[in-house]
Amino acid sequence: MFRKKRPIKMGGFGILSPILLMIVLFSLSITQLMHIPDEPFHLPAYWEMIIAGLLGVLFGGIMLTQTSYEIREDGFIYSKPNKNFKFIIFAIILIRVSLSQYFKNIDYIEFTILTMLLALLYLGIWRIGSYIKYRKLYAGQKEIGTIQ
Known about the structure:
The protein has 148 residues and is mainly alpha-helical. It has one domain (2-35, 43-144). It is 66% helix and 4% strand. The chain has helices at residues 13-34, 46-65, 85-102, 108-144, and strands spanning 69-71, 77-79. It has a two-stranded antiparallel ribbon with strand order 1-2. A hairpin with a 5-residue loop joins β1 and β2 (77-79). The radius of gyration is 18 Å and the shape is elongated.
């Protein structure tokens, strides 16, 4: 949402930076979960991880379809405004909160891992897909020489 006002620079690598940050933070979080005193670490059931993964892929796909880029008069690439984007973000947050309320009786370690898996997948798919969209537009404009 912030990128509507500023052009995307540095070859679009800023689009991918949240993924790197999430990987670091999630690895630190899992390390902390593994070392809680008197609390055994265990992964959720495979079917729970598959469902969290499928939801993450679904959310990421929805976010990706709503993300697009445009070249403006100044020759820079900007995020294209989308009127539905804020409603989709709100719906995804609402679904995640309602799922967390529904599953609040499961072990908090399992719940944390499932939430992190879902978030990592949907943000990863969204950001990597957005980067690919950006690079295609960038490469197309670079060939004809109209990009800054």
